[in-house]
Write a structure and sequence with these properties.
The structure is a single chain. This protein is mainly alpha-helical. Among the domains are: 1-36, no CATH class; 44-78. 50% of the residues lie in helices and 0% in strands. The protein contains four helices and no strands. The mean pLDDT is 77.
Length: 107
Amino acid sequence: MMYELYCGVYDNDGKVPVKLSMYRTIFQNEFNIAFEMPKKDRCDRCERHANDNACDEKFQAHILDKTHSKTERDKYRKSPNTATICFDLQNVITLPRAKKTSSTKES
């Protein structure tokens, strides 16, 4: 996309832009910017499984839950009458945590 924008600027000025290969070489060598697809984030459980290759019942249940969530999300995304907003809150702690002290009254 950046290369297309670059070419658009040069086309408007009547100049000939450099080829894509030269554009990439300049960015990688002069600016140390790589052109790669970002890696997908994995949750802690999937990361542990990738490292241990331990396939237990909890991991299987996790995969089923993940598949079910994706199926439901895709179903709602395809619905023309529904606005869908997705949030990944797995690693987000929205409330502060405090240790329970002896002076705290239990209910």
